[in-house]
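Work Package 3 (structural annotation) set out to generate three-dimensional models for the target panel prioritized at the project kickoff. During this period the team completed the workflow that converts sequence records into C-alpha coordinates, so that structures can be stored uniformly alongside our sequence database. As a representative example, we reproduce one entry of 158 residues exactly as it appears in the project archive.
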Amino acid sequence: MFKIGDKVVYPMHGAGVIEAIEEKEVLGERNQYYILRLPVGDMKVMVPITTSREAGLREVVGKDEIKKVFRILKGTSTAMSANWNRRYRANLEKIKSGDIFEVAEVVRNLIRREKEKALSSGEKKMLENARQILVSELALAIELEEEKTKFLIDSALA
Protein backbone atom coordinates (compact mmCIF):
# COMPACT_ATOMS: atom_id res chain seq x y z
CA MET A 1 0.00 0.00 0.00
CA PHE A 2 1.24 3.45 -0.90
CA LYS A 3 1.07 6.53 1.29
CA ILE A 4 0.58 10.24 0.71
CA GLY A 5 3.69 11.76 -0.84
CA ASP A 6 4.83 8.56 -2.59
CA LYS A 7 6.03 8.95 -6.17
CA VAL A 8 4.28 6.40 -8.37
CA VAL A 9 3.77 5.50 -12.03
CA TYR A 10 0.37 4.83 -13.54
CA PRO A 11 0.80 3.05 -16.92
CA MET A 12 -0.36 4.99 -19.99
CA HIS A 13 -0.56 8.19 -17.90
CA GLY A 14 2.92 8.63 -16.45
CA ALA A 15 4.35 9.42 -13.06
CA GLY A 16 2.89 11.45 -10.25
CA VAL A 17 2.65 11.95 -6.53
CA ILE A 18 -0.06 10.57 -4.26
CA GLU A 19 -1.70 13.70 -2.88
CA ALA A 20 -4.46 12.06 -0.89
CA ILE A 21 -6.22 8.83 -0.03
CA GLU A 22 -9.96 9.38 -0.03
CA GLU A 23 -13.14 7.39 0.22
CA LYS A 24 -15.50 8.21 -2.62
CA GLU A 25 -18.73 6.89 -4.02
CA VAL A 26 -18.48 6.09 -7.71
CA LEU A 27 -21.34 4.39 -9.56
CA GLY A 28 -23.08 3.67 -6.27
CA GLU A 29 -20.05 1.92 -4.73
CA ARG A 30 -17.90 3.31 -1.92
CA ASN A 31 -14.19 2.67 -2.29
CA GLN A 32 -10.90 4.14 -1.19
CA TYR A 33 -8.90 5.86 -3.91
CA TYR A 34 -5.38 7.12 -4.36
CA ILE A 35 -5.59 10.68 -5.65
CA LEU A 36 -2.58 11.21 -7.93
CA ARG A 37 -1.32 14.51 -9.23
CA LEU A 38 0.49 14.01 -12.51
CA PRO A 39 2.72 17.08 -12.99
CA VAL A 40 3.19 16.58 -16.74
CA GLY A 41 -0.11 17.74 -18.19
CA ASP A 42 -1.25 18.84 -14.71
CA MET A 43 -3.82 16.03 -14.35
CA LYS A 44 -5.42 14.46 -11.32
CA VAL A 45 -6.28 10.77 -11.42
CA MET A 46 -8.24 8.60 -9.00
CA VAL A 47 -7.07 4.99 -8.74
CA PRO A 48 -9.05 2.48 -6.66
CA ILE A 49 -6.75 1.12 -3.96
CA THR A 50 -8.18 -2.40 -4.28
CA THR A 51 -7.23 -2.67 -7.96
CA SER A 52 -4.16 -0.42 -8.02
CA ARG A 53 -1.67 -3.29 -8.39
CA GLU A 54 -3.66 -4.91 -11.21
CA ALA A 55 -3.80 -1.49 -12.89
CA GLY A 56 0.01 -1.46 -12.80
CA LEU A 57 0.53 1.27 -10.19
CA ARG A 58 4.13 1.04 -9.02
CA GLU A 59 6.88 3.09 -7.41
CA VAL A 60 9.05 5.40 -9.51
CA VAL A 61 12.38 3.81 -10.47
CA GLY A 62 15.55 4.23 -8.43
CA LYS A 63 19.09 5.31 -9.36
CA ASP A 64 20.21 1.93 -10.79
CA GLU A 65 17.14 1.72 -13.03
CA ILE A 66 17.71 5.31 -14.22
CA LYS A 67 21.19 4.33 -15.43
CA LYS A 68 19.72 1.36 -17.29
CA VAL A 69 17.11 3.60 -18.96
CA PHE A 70 19.88 5.83 -20.33
CA ARG A 71 21.85 2.77 -21.51
CA ILE A 72 18.74 1.66 -23.40
CA LEU A 73 18.27 5.11 -24.95
CA LYS A 74 21.91 5.13 -26.10
CA GLY A 75 21.80 1.49 -27.26
CA THR A 76 21.12 0.06 -30.68
CA SER A 77 17.59 -0.22 -31.99
CA THR A 78 15.81 -3.52 -31.72
CA ALA A 79 14.18 -5.15 -34.72
CA MET A 80 10.67 -3.91 -35.46
CA SER A 81 8.14 -5.28 -37.88
CA ALA A 82 8.03 -3.65 -41.29
CA ASN A 83 4.24 -3.96 -41.07
CA TRP A 84 2.90 -0.71 -39.56
CA ASN A 85 -0.01 -2.38 -37.80
CA ARG A 86 2.10 -5.10 -36.13
CA ARG A 87 4.74 -2.56 -35.12
CA TYR A 88 2.10 -0.25 -33.65
CA ARG A 89 0.47 -3.05 -31.63
CA ALA A 90 3.82 -4.32 -30.32
CA ASN A 91 4.83 -0.82 -29.24
CA LEU A 92 1.43 -0.18 -27.65
CA GLU A 93 1.79 -3.37 -25.56
CA LYS A 94 5.20 -2.19 -24.37
CA ILE A 95 3.78 1.18 -23.31
CA LYS A 96 0.77 -0.44 -21.60
CA SER A 97 3.09 -2.69 -19.59
CA GLY A 98 4.15 0.32 -17.53
CA ASP A 99 7.74 -0.96 -17.65
CA ILE A 100 10.05 2.05 -18.01
CA PHE A 101 12.63 -0.01 -19.89
CA GLU A 102 10.06 -1.01 -22.51
CA VAL A 103 8.82 2.59 -22.81
CA ALA A 104 12.43 3.76 -23.26
CA GLU A 105 12.87 1.16 -26.00
CA VAL A 106 9.75 2.40 -27.81
CA VAL A 107 10.97 6.01 -27.62
CA ARG A 108 14.45 5.08 -28.87
CA ASN A 109 13.19 2.89 -31.72
CA LEU A 110 10.55 5.35 -32.94
CA ILE A 111 12.92 8.32 -32.84
CA ARG A 112 15.51 6.38 -34.82
CA ARG A 113 12.87 5.21 -37.30
CA GLU A 114 11.66 8.80 -37.67
CA LYS A 115 15.17 9.83 -38.74
CA GLU A 116 15.13 7.16 -41.47
CA LYS A 117 11.51 7.43 -42.60
CA ALA A 118 8.60 9.66 -41.75
CA LEU A 119 6.37 8.20 -39.04
CA SER A 120 2.65 7.80 -39.62
CA SER A 121 0.42 10.14 -37.65
CA GLY A 122 -0.48 7.25 -35.32
CA GLU A 123 3.17 6.49 -34.61
CA LYS A 124 3.95 10.20 -34.12
CA LYS A 125 1.21 10.38 -31.48
CA MET A 126 2.50 7.16 -29.89
CA LEU A 127 6.05 8.56 -29.76
CA GLU A 128 4.79 11.77 -28.18
CA ASN A 129 2.83 9.79 -25.57
CA ALA A 130 5.69 7.37 -24.79
CA ARG A 131 8.16 10.25 -24.53
CA GLN A 132 5.83 12.11 -22.15
CA ILE A 133 5.48 9.00 -19.94
CA LEU A 134 9.27 8.58 -19.89
CA VAL A 135 9.88 12.27 -19.12
CA SER A 136 7.34 12.26 -16.29
CA GLU A 137 8.93 9.29 -14.52
CA LEU A 138 12.52 10.36 -14.99
CA ALA A 139 11.75 13.94 -13.90
CA LEU A 140 10.31 12.64 -10.61
CA ALA A 141 13.03 10.00 -10.14
CA ILE A 142 15.91 12.40 -10.81
CA GLU A 143 14.07 15.33 -9.18
CA LEU A 144 14.67 17.54 -12.18
CA GLU A 145 12.32 19.86 -14.02
CA GLU A 146 10.57 18.61 -17.14
CA GLU A 147 12.58 20.67 -19.68
CA LYS A 148 15.95 19.58 -18.25
CA THR A 149 14.78 15.96 -18.25
CA LYS A 150 13.76 16.26 -21.92
CA PHE A 151 17.22 17.65 -22.69
CA LEU A 152 18.90 14.66 -20.96
CA ILE A 153 16.74 12.21 -22.92
CA ASP A 154 17.40 14.02 -26.22
CA SER A 155 21.14 14.05 -25.49
CA ALA A 156 21.14 10.30 -24.85
CA LEU A 157 19.31 9.72 -28.14
CA ALA A 158 21.62 11.93 -30.22
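The chain has two domains: 7-59, 63-157.
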